[in-house]
Amino acid sequence: MKHWYIKLVLFFLFLIILFALISYLKPVLNKKTCKNITKQEAIELTTNYPEVKEWLIKMEDLDQETIVKYDSINDKNHIMQVTEVHSDHYATYNWYKIDICTGEITSEFSK
């Protein structure tokens, strides 16, 4: 036990390195994989979204023209507009955000 303090210093050095390594690797290990949803996939997801699909069927039964329109993209969402087409205007049914990584859909107007 002549050099017990060296063992203690080495032990604390080991702990510091271990905590630094865990801090560095934690975000990497917890990072979710991103699906990178494309524009076309966003259109398909919106068209097949249950409330949109139901509305499109209803509009088709009424011979009402509709559009599922890709509007834009921001840092994490594709933005979609679902509309009725009239001779003199468009009537928006709803706006949808499609998460680029998860494909999760959020409607702008609650239903």
Question: Can you walk me through this structure?
Answer:
It is a single chain. This protein is of the alpha+beta class. The chain folds into two domains: 1-31; 39-107. It is built from three helices and four strands; from the N terminus they run H-H-H-E-E-E-E. The protein has a four-stranded antiparallel β-sheet with strand order 1-2-3-4, covered by helices on one side. A hairpin with a 5-residue loop joins strand 3 and strand 4 (105-107). The longest helix is centred in the N-terminal third of the chain and has 27 residues, at 4-30. It is rod-shaped. The termini are far apart.
Layout of strands and helices, then pairs:
Layout: H1 4-30, H2 39-47, H3 50-61, E1 66-73, E2 77-85, E3 90-99, E4 105-107
Antiparallel strand pairs: 1-2, 2-3, 3-4
Order of helices and strands: HHHEEEE
Shape: rod-shaped
First CA to last CA: what distance? 74 Å
Number of H- or I-type helical stretches: 3
Question: Low-confidence parts, pLDDT < 50 over ≥5 residues?
Answer: none
Helix and strand content put the structural class at alpha+beta
Strand order across the largest sheet:
1-2-3-4
The count of β-strands is: 4
- Mean pLDDT metric: 90
Strand content: 25-35%
User: Helix proportion of residues, in percent?
Assistant: 40-55%
Instruction: Give the radius of gyration.
Output: 26 Å
Query: Strand count, sense and closure of the main sheet?
Result: 4 strands, antiparallel
Domains (count): 2
